[in-house]
Amino acid sequence: MSDFDIMLARKKEEKSRRRKRRTIDLVNENDDLIAQLLQKMQRAAEEDRQLNTEGKPATKKIAILKHVMSQLIKKDLQLAFLEHDVLNVLTEWLAPLPNKTLPCLQIRENILKLLADFPAIDKTHLKRSGIGKAVMYLHKHPDETKANRDRAGRLISDWARSIFNLSADIKAMPREERQQLDLLRMSRKRKQYPEQTTSAHIESDAIRPGNIGSTHRARVPMPSDKVYIIRPKSNIDTDLSVVKKKKLNRYEACLKNFLHKKRLNSSCGNANLSIEGRNLTL
């Protein structure tokens, strides 16, 4: 190898080290900025709760909303935000205030849209952050707008498929897998509530539409464990041995008489014929 080749190899190695160093510095810088932003969001949520407790307008979150959203919508940083537990902070922002009022409509709308644009969220992040409960609360709240309830419902449906490892297309799931999933859910409910063994309790504990884990399809029917030994007493006091004939209406009575006369005329017509031609109509 010539001296020129050795020099080129050294230059290439130095550039590679510099590029790697710049990448590491950029990642570290992004991590610091993300941590600072999340701390600022957490502090704003705490201050809003304190202001609401004192009967004052909660304006801290709405004051920094524009700046926060300008950073959270950056696609190249969203995975880093998820790794820094941004869902925990968003849960605080969506949670109702101490007086049970919802956060500002602009805050709820922007966060729901942001969550819909996020990349696929790992189920461990979903369970740990509690974001599903906050979104479900908005989905069921009577004061929430219809558009936000629809957004929340779609988020819950997508996250439920992620948690239960369901296919995005229910029709693509084999029937055996759907049955096994239903049996698994039922066994989990029975383990959680062992004292509830009747079908009434099972139905009350079943997943309702809109909850996490619900699916838009017919559920597999389960056999009832009830044993019926007493026949209910009938409230109808009638003699079943007496069968009443159906009363004919006017049209049916006329039709019956007409058919009866027609049969009589057809059976007696040949017997009344005369060889001389009497009683014949000309």
TrEMBL record:
Transmembrane segments: none annotated. Residues 27-54 form a coiled coil. Signal peptide: none annotated. PROSITE patterns: TFIIS_N (PS51319). Residues 88-166 form the TFIIS N-terminal domain. It is found in: Nucleus. InterPro entries: RNAPII_TF_IWS1, TFIIS/LEDGF_dom_sf, TFIIS_N. Keywords: Coiled coil, mRNA processing, mRNA splicing, mRNA transport, Nucleus, Transcription, Transcription regulation, Transport. GO terms for biological process: mRNA processing; poly(A)+ mRNA export from nucleus; RNA splicing. GO terms for cellular component: nucleus. It comes from the Eukaryota. The keyword Transport applies. Belongs to the IWS1 family. This is AGAP000400-PA-like protein. It comes from Anopheles sinensis (Mosquito).
